[in-house]
Amino acid sequence: GTGTSGTLSYTYNGVAAPAVSTVSPTSGPAPGGNTVVINGSGFTNATAVTFGSTAATSFTVVSNTVINAVVPPGHSAGGNVFVLVTGPGGTSAASTTYTYVAAPIVSTVSPTSGPAPGGNTVVINGSGFTNATAVTFGSTAATSFTVVSNTVINAVVPPGHSAGGNVFVLVTGPGGTSAASTIYTYTAALTPTVTGLSPASGPVSGGNTVTLTGSNFNGATTVTFGGNAASSFAILSSTGINAVAPRGTSGTASVVVITPAGASLGFNYTYIAPPAPTAVFPTTGVTAGSDSVAITGTGLTGTTKVNFGTTPATSFTVVSDTEVDAITPMHLLPAITSY
User: Among 141, 219, 237, 306, which is least packed by CB within 10 angstroms?
Assistant: First the structure.
């Protein structure tokens, strides 16, 4: 006859969809390419990882609870997307976000040019500067920089090529590096020129301070007197330097200023040897003074005083580097006491 069989039970073992709990780090550059760690469950047979609607560049299932994924490119302006994992049981819920961080944008730099040795400060305007990690002029890092706000950076320009030229100003942050679009111009450094010295002469022993006047002294690295480096020097301005003369030899020495742009033409400085009298004629005279005597020797050109003992000559005339004529002063004999 006909009838119905007995009832038997059958159990469907459902496969749960993956669950994403965290992603680390939670943000990265808009161009992607960085690796993140996704934590959760149900990852063993994962077939896809997506950031928003874009598949990860690649991913590796480390365990049932961990996936390493290479982030795909996102929108250049940045933004948030859900991180999703798909497996045999379906796709994880849209609950864990990843943030694409836009690269900084440099719109202007002011001023747009400056000296080849750098050292001047410029203001960089744009956006996305808050967490800036680097500022470069071409491939050279700024000497220093300060993030004033999300839209303003103050930067000290590093040295450029002495011949000048154009470079891109770039700002780097968590979202990457700004596009190469804003130009800064290094102006060619001018060779220094020395036009005056004060004083223009000094002792062969050196040690005296000489003030150099001229132009294009900024960035000076060396000052020489006859090829010998100044004992020290200080740049007062682009037109002035104070230098301590080194020891020299009697005669003329060229003073030269050297900067990254080159060396100046020499400007004459005179080293003066101390006077060295060797003879006096006549060798005797009356105590009343007023005798004319000729003093001979070397280095007498710069004579400023002639003394007889401790008493200055009544007058003197520099005849040459080897002769000074002087009028003797009165000489008082010691008083004699009678007993």
Answer: 237
What does the alpha-carbon distance between residue 157 and residue 6 come to, in Å, rounded to a whole number? Answer: 90
CATH number of the domain bearing residue 97 = 2.60.40.10
Number of domains in the chain: 4
User: What does DSSP assign to residue 116?
Assistant: T
CA distance 106 to 128: 9
Residue 61 dihedral angles phi and psi, to the nearest 5°: -80, 110
Q: Is there a domain that residue 4 lies in?
A: no
Tens digit of pLDDT for each residue in 207-225?
999 999 999 998 899 999 9
Q: How far apart are CA 288 and CA 290, in angstroms?
A: 7
Cα-Cα-Cα-Cα dihedral sign, residues 239, 244, 250, 256: negative
Radius of gyration of the chain (CA): 43
* Main-chain phi, psi angles of 190, to 5 degrees: -95, 140
CA distance 214 to 225: 16
As a whole number of angstroms, the distance between CA 53 and CA 235 comes to 62
Distance CA 116, CA 184 (A): 11
Residue 68 lies in a domain: yes
End position of a domain, from candidates 246, 272, 298: 272
Q: 197's torsion region: left (phi>0), alpha (psi -120 to 50) or beta?
A: beta
Q: Angle at CA 108, nearest 5°, toward 107 and 109?
A: 145
Q: How many CA atoms lie within 13 A of 187 on its CB side?
A: 10
What pLDDT digit, counting tens, does each position of 60-91 carry? Answer: 999 999 999 999 999 888 899 999 999 999 99
Q: Which of 134, 152, 187 is the last residue in one of the domains?
A: 187
pTM: 0.55
The DSSP H or E segment spanning 210 is strand 209-215
Tell me the two tokens of residue 236. 């007062």
